[in-house]
Amino acid sequence: MGLLRASADAIIVGARTVHDASPEGLWVPEYTYPDAKLLFREYRVNALHKPEYPLLVVVSGSGRLELERAIFRTPGVRTAVITTSAGSDVLAAAGATKLPSVQIHTLDAKSGTMAPTAMLRLLYAELGVRTLLHEGGPTLFGQFLEAEAVDELFLTLSPQIAGRKGDTIRPGLVEGIEFMPDRSPGFQLLSVKQRAEHLYLRYGRSGGHPPMA
Question: pTM value?
Answer without folding.
Answer: 0.91
